[in-house]
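pasting Exopolyphosphatase for the record, 528 residues
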Amino acid sequence: MVDDEHGVDLPGATSGPSEAEARRIVDLVTKVWYALTPEQAEQIHTTLRGANPQHIISDPWLFNALLLSEHLTERAGAEPDQRGLVETSADMSGYAAAVLRNATSSDEVVAIGSALVIGYRIQGDLDGAEQIGESVEQRLEELGRQGRGLTTRPATRPGQLSMQRGLTATLRGDFARAMTLYSTAYSQMGEPPYRHFAGANAAANAAMLSVLEGHIDLAGQWLERTAAFTDRSGWSGYLVYLGEYVARALLAVDRLDRPAAETALELAGPASVQAELWPFVAVAHCAAELAFGDPYRAHEQLRAAAFAHNHQLRDSTYCGHILLRAYLDVLVAEGEYRTAMQVAEEAGEPARTFVPVAHAYLRTGRHGDAARLAAQGIRRDDLSVRDIRELRLIRAVSLMKLDRADEAAHVYSIFQRADNDCTAGMRARMDPQDLADLAGTATALGQGGPGTRVGCQGRGEPPGPVNLTVTELQVLRLLADGRTIAQAAEASFTSPNTVKTHVSSIYRKLGVTNRADALWRADALGLL
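structre below
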């Protein structure tokens, strides 16, 4: 039968488990959580299918046991991504909201509130999911003030609410907030084998975001934490550790380690996987295909993933524009440079479009535009460390092609300070001859090796603190973008003579006599 008030399927019989049976079911489900076995689920399902609907509705833990046991009994084996279980949270949103209002313990609030957050996400309402998560946190604080959230026994779902709120922030593209919530979830984690699931899930997702943003050392720390857990073979393993598989795939692509990438992607599933983290899985597959295979195949896979989720790539803002970025990467790899530039412009040129557009400029001979866009991106605080590194390499090549050898060598030396095996993929996206020429230029100027200390030729170390006016800083940054005096004058709505005056003042304050040395000193002082 269907409960009209809450819109969920419930057993139709009027009998039900005895009070002792119901208590045993609740104790088991609250204890083992995602470690519930298919055999246990079948026994629970058989018992509860004969229960009185109102009896189940009156107890949120019995209702949770029914939903979980029904999924494990009827769908889990056919759904490695456990999509049905996730969708169930959307189906029970009305019920969960009603229960949440009357919840009397922190365990109930966390369990039902987390399910409600998931439900809103599955319905596509990420803002609603965030608001619900916030209200559930407030409810927990209220219980704490009343002394009703305190208990001597361990929490049954430690870290689950923070984990689900972190996933909501991830899908909204707020990665910094997501990392904070994942860290909280991990700190709240209980001990294996039953109470660690939310913390392990949070660690896996934190590793994924760390790799995506280019924080390789941090990613390694999170991956070490996930490696401590060995329960990946259970039915819930895919849900819990998917973020780890994506992280390992992206790291392997960065290192151009094809076998490791293929192993991780096999664990992550196909690009069109029906999981909430599907955009990240699709991006990992796309990156691997671009690195090791065929850009046209990468394009097909990406479009298939978007189609499977009724998603448009050209104007995608989902997960911080990562799908839009993958689409632009594909277009550039296919040689569709003008299309890539147009799509980025139509999307408002968000931060994640800078690298592919800079590549498009470079490959179409617009070296000044490439150098200027790269400089703009490097200065932005909303750009990932990964993208800043790649933009430095693009800028160095662009400057070399503009016959600005000193600046090119300097920028290249900065890139090499952070150079490691995870930048192999960045180098592979560049023209090999350009890299050889750049390395030769840097070596000739004494700036070619990793860790080389760079300085202006014959000018020693940069001076102490320099006080430039706001207008001088604006002019300096226009010069760093590759603008001429005339172009800088036009951009700053002043005359070329006024700009020349500012340039003279900048040179005097920095203790230099030319643009290349000025830009080096400014960069060394953090002015750019």
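Residues 126-146 form the longest helix (21 residues).
Residues 1-14, 450-462 have pLDDT under 50 and may be disordered.
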